[in-house]
C-alpha cells in the first residue's frame, strides 16, 4: 500500500518535473563542488606541511577554495528554492484537484463526512506533502548520485576505502527500511488521531452554546484533553522511532569512518600510502554519508506524507454518485419531468419510490407532505445532488439530467435551502455569490424584493456591513431573506425554494409569498412548502407521503377531496408547518 501511494505521489510530482529536476541537478553540482573543495584543501595542507609551500605558493588554491565555498552555498540555496517552488506548484494543483473533486462528489458526500476531517485533509494534509516533495524526492536521487560521484573520486586514490564504503553504505538504507515499517504504522495512527482531534474541536467550538446550557462544557474539555493526550503519545512514539533511526545511522556511519581512519593510520605508519590521497579520501568519507543522513532525516517526512496522502487519495478515489455530461440546457424557462424516479441514500432503503411528475415551463409548483415524506430529497435529485437509483429526470426537450454539464445546469437555477449558508464577509460579498459582477443598484433591488433593504439601510456600513460565519450578526429571518435576495439577484430560469419562508413572521411571509409569485412569472418555480400561506397562489400542489406522490392539484381541488392534503391543512390550521 505504501509503495502504491509512493508511486501516486511521484506521479503527482511529475507536474513539477522541471523544478524537481533542477533541484536534483543543483544538488548534484553542489556535491561535485564538495569533491573539488576536498581536493583543493588536501593539496593546500599537503603543500604547506610536507612541501613547505608558502601562502603565496598556494594562493591560487586558496582563492579557488573560497570560490567553491561560495558556489556550493549558492547551489544549495538555489536547489532549495527550486524544490520548494516545485512542491508549491504540486500542492496548488493537488489542492485544486481535491476541491474540484469534493464539489463533484456533492453535498450528499459532504453530509456523511465530518467538516473538520475534510478541512484538515484539504489544508494540513496537503501541506504535509511539502517535505516529501521538496526534500525527500530530491534526496532520493541525490543519495544515489552524490555517493557514486564520491566513490568515483576515491577509487583512483584508494580502492580499499572505496570497498569499505561500498559494503557499509547499503547497510544504512536497509536498516531504515526495517524501521520504516514500524514508523508507517505510527504515522497512520498519528494522522487519524489528528483528524479525530480536529473534528472534536470544531464540534466543541460550534456547539459551545449548547454545551454551556446543558452544563457539559467541562466534560467536552476533558474529552478533548484525552484526545490531545493520545495524539501527544502517538507523536512521541514517532519521535522515538525517528531518534532510533538517527542513532543507527550515526553508529554505522561513525563505524565506517573510524575503520577507514584506522586503516589509513596503519598504512601511513608503514609507508603504504602517502599523506595527500589519505587526507583527501578521509575528507570525503564523512561526506559520503551526508546524503544518507539527509535521507534518514526526510524519511519520516515521507511517513507523515504517506499517512496524509492515504486520506487524500481515499477522497480522490471516491467515485461521484451523480454522473454529468457535456450538454448545455436550453435557454428560457425550463420544464422538468420525473419518470419512475426512485432515490436511495442507503442500498435497499428508498426515500422516493416511483415518482412520476412534471413541472411545466413557467409553472409555480408546491411540494407538501409530512416531515420525512421525501420533499427535500426530490429537490436534491432535481438539483443533481443525489443520483436516482431508478428512473430519470428529463429537462427541457427530453435531455436527461445526467447528460447535462454540471456547471451549466447549476448556472440555470437558483436554490434557497432549508438552512441557508452565509459566509464571513460583507453583505455585498454574500450577495455577489449569485452574480459576481452585480452593482449596488442590482443588489439593492434584490434586497428590496426580499423585504430586507430597509434593515440594511439602517446599518452604519450598509451593504459593506461585516457579518460573521453562518450569518452571525443577523437574525434567522434576516438570514433567510438575505438568501432569498441572493436568489432574486441571480434571476435564474429555474427557482427551487426549500422552506423559503422559514424563520419569518406571518406578515413578512405574506409579503414574500406575493414577491415569490411575481418572481416565478416566466420561469419555473418549485416551492417546498411548510405553511399554508405559501401554497395558496401556486398553480399546482404535489402531495408526498412516504416517498410517493399521493395527490396533486390546486389548493381548492385538494381540499375538496378530503384526502391527505386536507388532513394536513386541518392539522396545521393555516399557521403550523406542513
Describe the structure.
By secondary structure, this protein is of the alpha/beta class. Among the domains are: 231 residues, ABC transporter type 1, transmembrane domain (ABC transporter transmembrane region fold, Up-down Bundle); 72 residues, P-loop containing nucleotide triphosphate hydrolases (Rossmann fold). 64% of the residues lie in helices and 11% in strands. The strands form three sheets. The protein has a six-stranded mixed beta sheet with strand order 6-9-10-3-11-12, with helices on both faces. Strands 2-1-4-5 form a four-stranded antiparallel beta sheet, with helices on one face. The longest helix has 54 residues.
Summed over residues and divided by their number, the pLDDT gives a mean of 81
CATH-assigned homologous superfamily of the domain at 87-317: ABC transporter type 1, transmembrane domain
What are the low-pLDDT stretches, counting only 5+ consecutive residues below 50? 573-578
Specify the CATH class of the domain at 87-317.
Mainly Alpha
* Alpha carbon gap, first and last residue: 52 Å
What share of residues are in beta strands? 5-15%
With strands numbered from the N-terminus, the spatial order across the biggest sheet is 6-9-10-3-11-12
Gross morphology is elongated
Write the layout of secondary structure elements.
Layout: H1 2-13, H2 17-49, H3 59-111, H4 115-127, H5 130-154, H6 159-168, H7 171-206, H8 208-213, H9 217-270, H10 275-317, E1 336-346, E2 349-359, E3 364-369, H11 375-383, E4 390-395, E5 399-400, H12 406-411, E6 413-416, E7 425-426, H13 427-431, H14 440-449, H15 453-457, E8 466-467, H16 476-490, E9 494-498, H17 506-519, E10 524-528, H18 532-535, E11 540-545, E12 548-553, H19 555-561, H20 564-572
Parallel strand pairs: 3-10, 3-11, 6-9, 9-10
Antiparallel strand pairs: 1-2, 1-4, 4-5, 7-8, 11-12
Helix pairs in contact: 1-10, 2-3, 2-5, 2-10, 3-4, 3-5, 4-7, 4-10, 5-10, 6-9, 7-9, 7-10, 9-10, 14-16
Amino acid at each position: 500500500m505504501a509503495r502504491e501511494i509512493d508511486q501516486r505521489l511521484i506521479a503527482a510530482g511529475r507536474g513539477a518535473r522541471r523544478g524537481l529536476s533542477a533541484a536534483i541537478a543543483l544538488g548534484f553540482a553542489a556535491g561535485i563542488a564538495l569533491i573539488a573543495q576536498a581536493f583543493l584543501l588536501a593539496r593546500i595542507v599537503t603543500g604547506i606541511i610536507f612541501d613547505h609551500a608558502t601562502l603565496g605558493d598556494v594562493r591560487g588554491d586558496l582563492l579557488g577554495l573560497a570560490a567553491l565555498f561560495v558556489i556550493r552555498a549558492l547551489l544549495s540555496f538555489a536547489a532549495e528554492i527550486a524544490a520548494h517552488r516545485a512542491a508549491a506548484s504540486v500542492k496548488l494543483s493537488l489542492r485544486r484537484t481535491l476541491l474540484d473533486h469534493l464539489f463533484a462528489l456533492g453535498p450528499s458526500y459532504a453530509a456523511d463526512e465530518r467538516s473538520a476531517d475534510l478541512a484538515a485533509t484539504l489544508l494540513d494534509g496537503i501541506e504535509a506533502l511539502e517535505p516529501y516533495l521538496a526534500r525527500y524526492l530530491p534526496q532520493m536521487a541525490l543519495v544515489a548520485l552524490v555517493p557514486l560521484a564520491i566513490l568515483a573520486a576515491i577509487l583512483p586514490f584508494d580502492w580499499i576505502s572505496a570497498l569499505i564504503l561500498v559494503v557499509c553504505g547499503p547497510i544504512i538504507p536497509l536498516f531504515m527500511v526495517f524501521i520504516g515499517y514500524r514508523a508507517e504504522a505510527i504515522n497512520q495512527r498519528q494522522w487519524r488521531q489528528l483528524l479525530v482531534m480536529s473534528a472534536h474541536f470544531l464540534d466543541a467550538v460550534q456547539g459551545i452554546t449548547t454545551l454551556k446550557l446543558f452544563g457539559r462544557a467541562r466534560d467536552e474539555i476533558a474529552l478533548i484533553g484525552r484526545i490531545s493526550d493520545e495524539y501527544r503519545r502517538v507523536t512521541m512514539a514517532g519521535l522515538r522511532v525517528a531518534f532510533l533511526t538517527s542513532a543507527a545511522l550515526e553508529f554505522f556511519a561513525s563505524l565506517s569512518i573510524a575503520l577507514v581512519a584506522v586503516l589509513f593510520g596503519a598504512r601511513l605508519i608503514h609507508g603504504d600510502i602517502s599523506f595527500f590521497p589519505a587526507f583527501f579520501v578521509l575528507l570525503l568519507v564523512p561526506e559520503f554519508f551526508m546524503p544518507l543522513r539527509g535521507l534518514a532525516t526526510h524519511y519520516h517526512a515521507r511517513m507523515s506524507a504517506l499517512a496524509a496522502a492515504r486520506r487524500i487519495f481515499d477522497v480522490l478515489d471516491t467515485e461521484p454518485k451523480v454522473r454529468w455530461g457535456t450538454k448545455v440546457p436550453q435557454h428560457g424557462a425550463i420544464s422538468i419531468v420525473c419518470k419512475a424516479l426512485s432515490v436511495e441514500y442507503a442500498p435497499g432503503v428508498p426515500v422516493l419510490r416511483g415518482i412520476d411528475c412534471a413541472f411545466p415551463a413557467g409553472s409555480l409548483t408546491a411540494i407538501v407532505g409530512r416531515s420525512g415524506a421525501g420533499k427535500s430529497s426530490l429537490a436534491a435529485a432535481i438539483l443533481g445532488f443525489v443520483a436516482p437509483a431508478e428512473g430519470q429526470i428529463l429537462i427541457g426537450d427530453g435531455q436527461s439530467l445526467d447528460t447535462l454539464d454540471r456547471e451549466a445546469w447549476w448556472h440555470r437555477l437558483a436554490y434557497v435551502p432549508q438552512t441557508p449558508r452565509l459566509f464571513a464577509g460583507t453583505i455585498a460579498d454574500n450577495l455577489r455569490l449569485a452574480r459576481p459582477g452585480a452593482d449596488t443598484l442590482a443588489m439593492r433591488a434584490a434586497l428590496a424584493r426580499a423585504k430586507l433593504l430597509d434593515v440594511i439601510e439602517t446599518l452604519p456600513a450598509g451593504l459593506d456591513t461585516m457579518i460573521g460565519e453562518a450569518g452571525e450578526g443577523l437574525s434567522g429571518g434576516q438570514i433567510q431573506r438575505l438568501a432569498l435576495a441572493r436568489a432574486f439577484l441571480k434571476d435564474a430560469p429555474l427557482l427551487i425554494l426549500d422552506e423559503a419562508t422559514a424563520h419569518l413572521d406571518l406578515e413578512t411571509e405574506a409579503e414574500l409569498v406575493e414577491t415569490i409569485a411575481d418572481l416565478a412569472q416566466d420561469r419555473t418555480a418549485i416551492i417546498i412548502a411548510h405553511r399554508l400561506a405559501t401554497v395558496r397562489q401556486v398553480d399546482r400542489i404535489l402531495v408526498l407521503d412516504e416517498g410517493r406522490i399521493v395527490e396533486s392539484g390546486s389548493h381548492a381541488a385538494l381540499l375538496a377531496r378530503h384526502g391527505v392534503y386536507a388532513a394536513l391543512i386541518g392539522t396545521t390550521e393555516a399557521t403550523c408547518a406542513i
